[in-house]
Amino acid sequence: MATTMTFVILLIAVSMASLLGLLAIFSVYVGYLHWKYSHIPAPKRDNFFLGHVPLISRELERGKILDEVVDELHRIHGSVMLIWLYHKPLVFLSDPELARKCLVTLNLPKNPFSYTSLGFPFGQRMAGNGLVTQMDHGVWQKRRTVLNPAFHRRHLMNFMSAFNNSCDLFLSKLDEMADGKTVVDMAQEFSRVTLDVIGKVAFNVDVNVIEDANSPFPMAIATCLQGVQTNFRSPFWRINVLQFPFQKSVSQATRFVRDYAKNVIQERQEAILRGDDTPLDILAHILSMAESEPSLTLEDMVDEFVTFYVAGQETTSNQLSFTLFEILKNPEIENRLVQEIETVLGSRQFVEYRDLGNLQFLGQTLKESLRLHPPVEATSRETTRDGYFAGHFLPKGTSVLICWFILHRLPEFWPEPRKFDPERFSTAAKSPGHGQSVPYFPFSLGPRTCIGQTFAQFEARVLMARLLQEFELSLIPGQNELRHEERLTLRPKGGVQCTIKRRGTVS
């Protein structure tokens, strides 16, 4: 008995000594990192191990988002600023020339720390190694070349009927609630119609999310996105027992979306083998990647399917939500839009391709919404060699974050930056940067700019034009200020709560 007790005590002592030894080694490593980056401007750290996490957490609890916190800090510490996420150094760059240097001149690779969370939230494959998350530039370039034609303007012209058909379903659903009294969350409705559009146009599938309020698809995608956001901010998720139930729900949602994608892909492959006529859509281009990449697997194709489905739906949905909120807060803008839509469309309830260019003020309004509320508010890169950025030395392997949210609000380029003003993008407007190139990058910059940006803007113009043509919407009382929240992308906090009535009817 005494021998057993002695052994247990010895085991505990050895374990404690080992833990203390590991803590000492980790402390030395963290101290080395602090020394290595000590020359870069930064707020005072709250804690040796936690870095700036307590500071950021306090601000988030006050209702701010990370972009707003960083925006305030960069005004104090400059355009190159260091933030410690626990023991990980992240350098925020808030200068347009530095953005161009990183994304165009140097074409820095994406940062694995950030994009692994999107590809594999909590270790579960979601977007995997799709076009957005692919780290191997050679592989990315091959796939981008194959997929580019699917997003060419000439090809997208063929989708106008599909855009309008989804819009018909969307408006019909809203018409059921257009009594001027029923409160409708338009953010949720935009989410449903954009899911419908991307499914039908890109993959020739109907997920029936507009008519079926109980469809599991919207909730599954929302859970996946929340998982990505939580994973990014939880580097110690593997040992966070309290988070395990949520992690399980994310894994289940991810498997649901990927299993659906596999079924769609396999059904298309079988149709091709049978010699059936199949559409030349985005899925067709995904399948054609195998011709230039023989090693391409089913899981690789699913990666691209999920990437386009999630990214294509979420960003456009949020853009429409932000835009509608700003329109409804600015009656003079709404009146001008309604007049333009009436002039261009008349009584025609179909937006043709030629109409898109004539809806100029609507285009300006959508652009201004992307400036003030970019759904993808930042991008992350990693330096591949030692170098200087605005006079500050950044070692090889440094994680840098370029925040569009901040660049789009720099007062030296954008007078009254927080004012919603579509006239900034009129052809008559002078460059607010006094001859400088204006920092406007809602779809990123450089070779890895968003492949689907033209698709998204076609879709947004059709949906917003048809919505404002048919309905008069009003924000319910209390929505005086637009607040942001992060769920991988930037979205309006609390949605966009409205009442709806047919345009021209009397309350």
Quick overview:
This protein is α+β, with helices and mostly antiparallel strands and 507 residues long.
What does this structure look like?
- With 507 residues, this protein is an alpha+beta fold.
- Helices cover 53% and strands 10% of the residues.
- It is built from 18 helices and 11 strands.
- α8 (160-175) packs parallel to α18, α9 (186-203) packs antiparallel against α13 and α14 packs antiparallel against α16.
- The radius of gyration is 25 Å and the shape is globular.
- Mean pLDDT is 90; it is low at 431-435.
Measured between the Cα atoms of the first and last residue, the distance is 87 Å
- Bin the strand percentage: 5-15%
Q: From the helix content, strand content and strand pairing, which structural class follows?
A: alpha+beta
What is the alpha-carbon Rg in Å? 25 Å
- Residue share in helix: 40-55%
Number of helices: 18
Strand order of the largest sheet: 1-2-7-4
Count of distinct strands:
11
For the residues shown, what is the average pLDDT?
A: 90
Characterize the biggest β-sheet: 4 strands, mixed
Low-confidence stretches: 431-435
Can you tell me the overall shape?
Answer: globular
H/E topology pattern: HHHEEHHHHHEHHHHHHHHEEEEHHEEEE
- How would you name the oligomeric state of the polypeptide chains in this document? single chain
Give a quick set of tags describing it.
single chain, 507 residues, 53% helix, alpha+beta, four-stranded mixed β-sheet, endoplasmic reticulum, 11 strands, globular
What's the layout of helices and strands?
Elements: H1 2-36, H2 53-61, H3 66-77, E1 80-85, E2 88-93, H4 96-105, H5 112-119, H6 137-147, H7 153-156, H8 160-175, E3 184-185, H9 186-203, H10 216-232, H11 244-274, H12 282-292, H13 298-329, H14 331-345, H15 353-358, H16 360-372, E4 378-382, E5 387-389, E6 392-394, E7 399-403, H17 404-407, H18 453-470, E8 471-475, E9 484-487, E10 489-492, E11 497-502
Parallel strand pairs: 2-7
Antiparallel strand pairs: 1-2, 3-11, 4-7, 5-6, 8-11, 9-10
Helix pairs in contact: 5-10, 6-12, 8-9, 8-18, 9-13, 10-11, 11-13, 13-16, 13-18, 14-16, 14-18
Transmembrane segments: 7-35
Main location: other
Protein name: Cholesterol 24-hydroxylase
